[in-house]
C-alpha cells in the first residue's frame, strides 16, 4: 500500500498577505528552514533560551498543526512575498504554561523572525496580520504575549499592537514579562 505524503497547505489554515509577506500553513518542505532557525543561538536566546535539536524542532513544528485542528488558530509560516524566502513564523497558541498567575485560556500571540531577516520590519508586519486575524475571528478573547525582559524589539512590537505590560513572572527559572490585550481596553 502506498502512503501519500501531503505537502500542500492545510485547508483550514487561512492564507494572509501583507504588503511584503505571505502567512500560510506549513508544509513538510518548510521544516529544514524552521529547524535551522530554531537551532540558531541568536534566535533562541529570547525564545527557548537555547538552540533546539532536531527532535525538539520537529515537535515544535508539528504542534501548530494540532493547534489549528483543535483550536481554530495556530502559527503560520511567514515568507517574503517577492522571493518566497522563509522569514519565520507567527501566530497564536495555547500552551498551558506553568506560569503564576496562570495564563491558561488566554491565547499567546508570538512571532519569530529568522536572524537573516530581522531589522526589516517583518516582525511587526507579520504580528500585525496575525493579531488582526485573531481579533476578527475571536473578538472577545483576551490575548497575551510572553516576552523576555531583555527582548526590546519584541516588547516594542507588543506595545505597538496594543498589548500592555501586566506582570513579571518566573518561567523555567527565568523572568518573563506578560503583556495582555483586553478587547474592552481597545
Tag the structure with descriptive keywords.
186 residues, alpha+beta, 8 strands, 25% strand
Write the layout of secondary structure elements.
Blueprint: E1 16-17, E2 21-24, H1 31-38, H2 41-44, H3 54-71, E3 75-80, E4 86-93, E5 108-113, H4 122-137, E6 143-147, H5 152-161, E7 164-171, E8 174-181
Antiparallel strand pairs: 1-2, 2-3, 3-4, 4-5, 6-8, 7-8
Helix pairs in contact: 1-3, 4-5
Question: What does this protein look like?
Answer:
The chain starts with 15 loop residues before the first strand and ends in a 5-residue tail after the last strand. Helix 1 packs across helix 3 and helix 4 (122-137) runs parallel beside helix 5. It is α+β, with helices and mostly antiparallel strands. It is globular, with a radius of gyration of 16 Å. The strands form two sheets. A five-stranded antiparallel β-sheet has the order 1-2-3-4-5, with helices on both faces. Strands 6-8-7 form a three-stranded antiparallel β-sheet, covered by helices on one side. The longest helix is centred in the middle third of the chain and has 18 residues, at 54-71. It has five helices and eight strands.
The number of strands is 8
What is the beta-strand fraction?
Answer: 25-35%
Helicity, in percent? 25-40%
Strand order of the largest sheet: 1-2-3-4-5
Q: How big is the Rg?
A: 16 Å
How far apart lie the N and C ends?
55 Å
**Coarse structural class:** alpha+beta
Q: In one word, what is the shape?
A: globular
Overall mean confidence score, pLDDT: 91
Detail the poorly predicted runs: 1-7
Mind summarizing the main beta sheet? Answer: 5 strands, antiparallel
**Count of discrete alpha- or pi-helical segments spanning 4 or more residues:** 5
